[in-house]
Write a structure and sequence with these properties.
It is a single chain. The protein is mostly helical and 116 residues long. It has one domain: Orthogonal Bundle (c-terminal domain of poly(a) binding protein), CATH 1.10.1900.20. Helices cover 75% and strands 0% of the residues. The protein contains five helices and no strands. The N and C termini lie far apart (87 Å).
Length: 116
């Protein structure tokens, strides 16, 4: 009986790894062992940074809302607490967008937060 080799499948597996690390420098994109290390690290970082991106955006929104609130004589904490007491439910990303694009609407929200 003829010897069965797994040439096609194993080559495809190797090519798949090398294709995924195409942008790496030097042997990290050419040698299989280094490529696997690079790919593992890269996928780990990608997973972590998808989580970090959410944190960073929330932080950015809070900074923008804080800056806009301080221009109107409130701290971020007072502004958010006032909105909660007034039962105004707007997410931070929308608040940040309003602060940048529509200052007159943000003025009204600030007044609402001050009254309560």
């Amino acid at each position: 009986m003829a010897r069965a080799r797994n040439a096609v499948a194993s080559r495809q597996r190797r090519k798949k790894v090398l294709k995924q690390v195409k942008g790496a420098r030097g042997e990290r994109s050419k040698r299989l062992r280094r490529a696997k290390e690079t790919l593992t690290k890269g996928l780990t970082y990608a997973y972590q940074h998808r989580k970090q991106k959410k944190r960073q955006y929330r932080s950015l929104w809070i900074m923008r809302v804080n800056a806009a609130a301080r221009e109107r004589g409130l701290t971020y904490r007072e502004f958010i607490a006032g909105l909660k007491k007034a039962k105004v439910e707007i997410s931070r990303d929308i608040l940040a967008q309003i602060a940048v694009e529509e200052p007159e609407v943000f003025d009204k929200l600030a007044e609402t937060a001050k009254k309560v």
